[in-house]
Amino acid sequence: MPDWVKKRALITVRTYPVPSAKSIEASCTAGVTDAGEWIRLFPVPYRLMDEERRFSKWQWIELSLLKASDGRPESYKINPDSITVGESVGTKDGWRARREILEPLRRPSLCQIQRERDEHGSPTLGIFRPHEIKRLLIQPAEEAGWTPAQESILKQDTLFQKAPEHTLEKIPFDFRYEFRCGDADCKWHTMLCTDWEMGEAYRRWRREYGDQWEAAFRNRFEKEMIEKYDTHFFVGTVHQFPNAWIIVGLFYPPKREPDLFG
After folding, report:
1. Which CA distances in Å does 60 have to 31, 40, 89?
2. What is the pLDDT of residues 119-144, one digit of tens each?
3. First to last CA, the chain
4. Angle at the Cα of 218 (from 217 to 223), degrees rounded to 5?
5. Domain ranges of the chain
6. Nearest partner of 38 among 71, 15, 72, 4, judged by Cα
């Protein structure tokens, strides 16, 4: 039997939740260990966890882990009841502390990250600064709502967990960035973004602005990400499709001169 291990990690990525047969709903979560290594935690049934164990992005946590069987070296199964939430890493001095933690893991391009994975089997997580973000695509999702099977999962209690009072809302749009990653041979990328912040922003602004939600959404995630912030993308591979990459999180400190990472 494999052994559970204790690790400490800074959470940098949290995706919008999806239905999970084993935990009702779950969010793919990733971060950096105190040893400076990528780590992927799944499943994280965030809304079902006790309040004192609900961590935010940029908080250190300690927890018990078991190496996952999905083939990706950074992936670990978690014991949600073992989570201890620690201190946060703030945004002082242009996000300096956050940048210093991420700098050793940053790569010059998405193409470089993909080459490393193809040659060595890892990483299956990464961070880079896109050379140019052309636009944000907002497209209707293939399914506007959950399928009957997904709906059943979201409403059915498990042996150890009770379904949330309010069923997880399906985001009826897919958000994709079109960008050039900076590699000399890059021919542009169009990549799905599943960042939790985008899903929550859509829900909030749709309530506030109704059919006019897109203007606020584009201002935040297109105009400001292109013009105001030094935007980086956290990326990761998809378990079911090992060669597919998606944007799993956004890193957006303010622009400064010289470049934030030198």
Report:
1. 9, 14, 8
2. 999 999 999 999 999 999 999 998 87
3. 46
4. 130
5. 5-88, 105-251
6. 72
- Residue 83's identity, in one-letter code, is I
Domain 5-88 has CATH 1.10.3470.10: no
Residues 6+ apart with CB under 8 A from 222: 133, 135, 136
**Omega into 130 within 30° of 0, i.e. cis?**
no
Order of strands, edge to edge, in the sheet holding 106-107?
A: 106-107, 125-128, 232-238, 241-251
User: Angle at CA 99, nearest 5°, toward 96 and 101?
Assistant: 115
| CA-CA-CA-CA dihedral for 18, 23, 29, 34, to nearest 10 | 180
Higher pLDDT, 117 or 239: 117
Tell me how long the chain is: 262
Structure token pair of residue 149: 């099977």
The structure's pTM equals 0.91
Residue 72 is which amino acid?
Answer: R
Grouping H, G, I as helix, E, B as strand and the rest as coil, residue 119 is helix
The one-letter code for the residue type at 199 is: G
